[in-house]
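User: Some background: our group keeps a shared notebook of sequences we're curious about, and every so often someone picks one and asks for a predicted structure to add to the entry. Today it's my turn. The entry only has the sequence so far, pasted here. Could you supply the structure so I can complete it?
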Amino acid sequence: MKLNFGEGAGERRDAEVPAFRTASAYHEQVVEPRRTPIHAREWIASLERHVPKELWHKPIDRIEAPELLDAVARVSLNTQAPSIYKELQIPAESLLGP
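Assistant: Of course. Here's the predicted structure to add to the notebook entry:
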């Protein structure tokens, strides 16, 4: 899929576009037309809240799979999972292994 990054974007290669611009373009062109307005706002707000700033502002072509996976794992542990661990009284660190 080719995203349109608006005016002035043609001056630099698409690969140099920061992750937040890529996410914003995807949101505008794909998510908004297919979701309710509330869900669309929640979708982008969730990214803005949970994607680490160092990745959010990093050029999309420089984000490596391991650092993206690490960010996703941190979000997963910091959002839904802690309440489950508290209920079961299992420390999150013990599930990650040595």
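Suggested note for the entry: The two ends are 40 Å apart (CA to CA). The CA atoms of residues 40 and 55 lie 21 Å apart.
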